[in-house]
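Recap from last week: sequence in, structure out.
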Amino acid sequence: MREYFTVGGRKLSFLDFGGPGEPLLALHGHYNEAAAFAPLAGALAPRWRVVALDQRGHGESDRADSYEREDYVADLVAFHRHLGVGAVPVLGHSLGGVNAYQFAARHPDRVSALVVEEIGAVVDCDWSFTTRLPASAPSREALVAALGRTAPYLECAFRQTDAGWGFSFGLDDTVRSQKALNGDHRGDWTAVSCPTLLVRGTLSDELTADQARAMVSRPGLRARLVELAAGHVVHHDAPERFAAEVAAFLAEPASRAAVSPA
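Predicted structure tokens:
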């Protein structure tokens, strides 16, 4: 079910995939939106009720004037408050992964467990792919052809407008968001106190093996690494394995201890 709420005069949208399970908040990456988590929601039901946010500038949420780190985290604070839940697991992919661990670091009472997919504590994002995306195409078929092998990763964000077929995100907004994502976020990563699962795709060059292993090896962190044969979008390339790893992690006693029902 799609729902909306307002933050600072801007509309944010989210998908509540429903069911009797405990809530799991899910945060997509750039070029995507909440609908990307539909397969994961189905795989985790009925134990978990996935609630996925269309982050600012994405999906059915409004475009924004700013895409800084503090903006995304503030949206998550408002999202959590709107849902009226206690401490819950949060899962994030890429952009959503940094948003998730920064939220967990700065608001530890609201996050019981953390799943971070394919993003590091130090981010050096290359936005040249964004600048090469077509602004519009005359048909869905033409857009798919222009995107080539990347089309399946973006198709949930396809939109038809009067100008033709394009995306539910703005290209200029995405570049601004990617620039703001870059930086050294190790302070937030090491401040996370809840159990954490870091998921890396072995075929991806976004999160290197060396950085991933360094992230989980720091003394005092309650984090472990899982590597799956997949590219940057692990939940797309290896959906069954990804869902199984997430479910197993969330079932562990340490991850379950602090989960509060909705």
